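Archive entry. Fields below.
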Amino acid sequence: MERDIQIVVIEDDEIIREGYALLISRTEGYQVVNTYASFDEAAKTITNDYPDVILLDIELPGTNGIQAIPRLKKLLPHAYILILTVYESEKTIFEALASGASGYLTKNTPAAKIVESIREVKDGGGPMSVNIARMVIRSFQKNQESPLSKRETQILEQVAEGKSRSQIAKDLFIDLETVRSHIKNIYLKLDVNSRADAIKTAKENKLI
Amino acid sequence: MERDIQIVVIEDDEIIREGYALLISRTEGYQVVNTYASFDEAAKTITNDYPDVILLDIELPGTNGIQAIPRLKKLLPHAYILILTVYESEKTIFEALASGASGYLTKNTPAAKIVESIREVKDGGGPMSVNIARMVIRSFQKNQESPLSKRETQILEQVAEGKSRSQIAKDLFIDLETVRSHIKNIYLKLDVNSRADAIKTAKENKLI
DNA sequence: AAACAATCACCCTTATAGGGTGATAAATAA
DNA sequence: TTATTTATCACCCTATAAGGGTGATTGTTT
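PREDICTED_STRUCTURE:
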């Protein structure tokens, strides 16, 4: 006999909060054990709720959702955190994932999908809404119309790994001066004059 | 009146290939216009198929799937490429996404999900199987038990951006010598003695 | 024929990196 | 409460690396 999945909802908007609680509790096998309007409020008693999964909003009064993630992790190391928010900015998503969130869903996600995602997260995975997956995929795709040649891109990648010119020369079996020459051309094309700026510009334009 | 979604399947195993073709064609609105056993074979005539979506296997004889992606992109810039494979290695997935694949599904994906994913891709998105999403999420999550302090991590991140000591000092409003000192401690903790090695080790252990 | 790509060469100066050694105040942990 | 870690700064040193300038050669692609 399996125990119900214990869920806690942290979301400041009462309507949304109770809405989630209701629709999740309606599904068999899922139980919302508590709801909070902020992390600061939750922090006091959430350890007594023993949640398996925490639904967490990003836009919270006081401690925001991103800041809350590591602190929730510390309070409840075995709970999975599912971000449920309207924000879809690349930076926010990556911050949340890097901070330890197990998944990321947008608020327009249909109820059935949310319940399914909770199950997926609980089973050790990481669900992503289609919008988020889209964004993550896009973040991996390099710019196809790079001004840099293949070789230049390859060398810039090594520069971004912190390698010195001579290290790059050794690794590519070419002369030190050739590496220099490529880097000069890279600087020209990107209109920069330092490694840091080249890396920055290249990343902004997804050249590397 | 909408036109059927035109699909091409490139997959070397005949059983699997025809299996996909059959199950996709059975769905209304989806039409498999051609199938190929390899990219090299497909390259000759695929432009006459005018596919909207290409289902592409990674393990192909001759030109493999990863190599095929940029070449397919060149032949058919507007076609979406959906990787459908058994491989789940992080490197392979990221290579495929970086090369321009629009999505990544594993072969154990149920038929209905594949059809749904084709629709999602066609509508401009990027579906990911749960396994893949899981892996991508994991790849974003930093190691929680880093040997580095917060400040050290922050400085190492800037080193990885190609910044010089003095640039880092300026940006953090601390002395040049302090930056040096931190970097020395980072080297000690990571047992390295160069920027490149520190970056490499840190990335391998997801410290940055 | 012209443009681009990849290769190498030698001029130059300043900044940078990394090793060694040590100190101090504050925060955190044992 | 003591011990350890963290964050801060200082000065010794040398070899190397970075970046600017200028130019040349050999292919490849257009």
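CURATOR_NOTE: Residues 164-166, 180, 183-184, 187, 193-195 of chain B lie near DNA strand C (CB under 10 Å from a C1').
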